[in-house]
Structures are given as C-alpha cells and as structure tokens.
Amino acid sequence: MLASLPNSEIIRIAIIVIFAVVTLLSRFAKKTAPPRPTSSPGTPGTTPWDTLRQAMRQGAEQGRPIQQPRPFQIPPPQLRDSFNQPPATQPESSFLPSLLLLALFVCLCLIAYRYFAR
C-alpha cells in the first residue's frame, strides 16, 4: 500500500509549483488591474498633498481681516467649496487569501496523513 502513495519529494515539488503559479497569477492580476486614481475627480493631475496645501493656504487667507472687496477683486472661495468627495474605496478580492488558506489546509492534511500513516 505504501508503494502506491506519491513520493514525498513529488509532493514538495508540487506544493512549490502551486505557490509559484499563485504568486505569478497574483502579480499578473495586479499589473492588469486599472490603477486607482490618486487625485480627486474634479481636479485631474493634483495629489492629495497639493489639495491639502491649497486648503491650508485658503484657510490662512480666510483668517486674515477681510477688506472691502474692490470691483476688480474676486472674493476668496469658501473653504467647504474647495473640497471634493474622496474617491470611494473598492473592496479587496478575497480569492487570493482563500486560495492561500486552502493550500495551507492541504499542506496540513498531507503532514497529518504522513504522520498518522506510519
């Protein structure tokens, strides 16, 4: 009966190949996924740090004493109007963690089988 069981070296090689394939698939999936936008939707090309600097600058301007606006001056924009909604976060895929947990479970079953099959 022990002769029909697969060799432990073959099992090790199979596990290594499975993990290598899973790693390659996960890297490929990350590269083909569209990049998440880092800028706010209303202002393309700006980073969150630029938005923060601009908001702090506008806040400092609002803290100064207000002078009577002249006809050729534009009043500073309100602080709450300058903020856009942050981009919605997308849920992570649970496929890869589930696959890794399944591989761990299979490894534990193989180890238990080898231990109790003695």
List keywords for this structure.
rod-shaped; mainly alpha
Plain-language structure description:
The chain is mainly alpha-helical. The chain has a domain at 16-33 and 93-107. It contains 4 helices and no strands. The longest helix is centred in the N-terminal third of the chain and has 25 residues, at 8-32. The protein is rod-shaped and about 95 Å long.
- Which segments are poorly predicted (pLDDT under 50) over 5 or more consecutive residues? none
The geometry reads as rod-shaped
The percent range for helix content is 55-70%
Strand content: under 5%
Structural class comes to mainly alpha
Report, as a whole number of angstroms, the end-to-end distance.
12 Å
**SSE run:** HHHH
Largest sheet: none
Count of individual beta strands: 0
Give me the Rg, rounded: 29 Å
In round numbers, the mean pLDDT is 75
How many alpha or pi helices? 4
